[in-house]
């Protein structure tokens, strides 16, 4: 199984979601980050996944500046692999792993290469010959309905039905918008909410994170 984690934006909780999927998948899982930007500014996403979930990880491309991968590559005049190369490497991993988790960069249409290839292209490519599940991580506050509907619509335009919505950072004291959007998100998209992670979940000690994952997800998360 290949499970892809995308989001409506950057910083919405994709890394926490990827780590939680790895915990649920067990020791046969590997988490992949096709393109990591902003290297050296914070803990790389894939290292955070390894820390939280204790799983094997792989990172295909590293870029210095905290920008979209194609922008970061063009800025420095460096060559980066095309999406087709990422797909080939993920297929190779899927031959020997029970689960391959793929965390995107930013949103679904952020370009992962300098030829215009996106995570959506990668997901559609992989779905041609592998079972693929795509999870959409979204904010819960004001503005999320529009962003989430656009992301879900883009997936469906390529024949990919999202496996579920994930609320990436639920505040301890939700306001009116947060309380309403918990119900409105599945209503307007037709996609169920399958997990809701509290704000700050990624800062927990690994043993506490792993122990609590089951309390934040439904039976359809990694189902």
Describe the structure.
- 40% of the residues lie in helices and 21% in strands.
- The N and C termini lie close together (11 Å).
- The chain has helices spanning 14-25, 45-53, 69-76, 83-94, 119-127, 144-157, 176-189, 206-216; strands at residues 2-7, 29-36, 56-62, 99-103, 132-138, 164-170, 193-198.
- It has a seven-stranded parallel beta sheet with strand order 3-2-4-1-5-6-7, sandwiched between helices.
- Helix 1 packs parallel to helix 2, helix 4 (83-94) packs across helix 5 (119-127) and helix 6 packs parallel to helix 7.
- The model has no long low-confidence stretch (mean pLDDT 94).
- The protein is of the alpha/beta class and 223 residues long.
- It contains eight helices and seven strands; from the N terminus they run βαβαβααβαβαβαβα.
Instruction: Give the SSE order as H and E letters.
Output: EHEHEHHEHEHEHEH
> How many separate helices?
8
Give the CA-based shape. Answer: globular
| Weakly predicted, low-confidence segments | none
How far apart are the termini? 11 Å
Structural class: alpha/beta
Which strand order spans the largest sheet, edge to edge or round the barrel? 3-2-4-1-5-6-7
Instruction: State the share of residues found in helices, binned by percent.
Output: 25-40%
Short key terms for the protein model shown above:
8 helices, globular, seven-stranded parallel sheet, 7 strands, 223 residues, alpha/beta
């Amino acid at each position: 199984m290949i499970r892809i984690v995308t989001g409506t934006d950057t910083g919405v909780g994709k890394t926490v979601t990827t780590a939680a999927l790895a915990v649920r998948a067990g020791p046969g899982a590997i988490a992949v980050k096709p393109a990591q930007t902003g290297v050296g500014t914070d803990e790389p996403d894939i290292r955070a996944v390894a820390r939280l979930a204790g799983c094997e990880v792989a990172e295909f491309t590293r870029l210095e500046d905290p920008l979209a991968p194609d922008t970061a590559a063009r800025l420095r005049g460096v060559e980066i692999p095309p999406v087709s190369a990422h797909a080939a490497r993920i297929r190779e991993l899927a031959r020997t792993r029970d689960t391959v988790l793929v965390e995107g960069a930013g949103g679904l249409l952020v370009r992962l290469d300098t030829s215009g290839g996106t995570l959506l292209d990668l997901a559609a490519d992989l779905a041609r010959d592998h079972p693929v599940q795509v999870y959409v991580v979204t904010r819960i506050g004001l503005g999320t309905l529009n962003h989430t509907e656009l992301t879900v619509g883009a997936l469906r335009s390529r024949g990919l039905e999202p496996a579920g919505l994930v609320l990436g950072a639920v505040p301890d004291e939700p306001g009116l918008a947060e309380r309403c959007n918990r119900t409105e998100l599945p209503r307007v998209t037709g996609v169920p909410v399958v997990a809701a992670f509290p704000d700050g979940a990624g800062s927990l000690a690994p043993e506490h994170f792993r122990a609590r994952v089951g309390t934040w997800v439904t039976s359809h998360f990694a189902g």
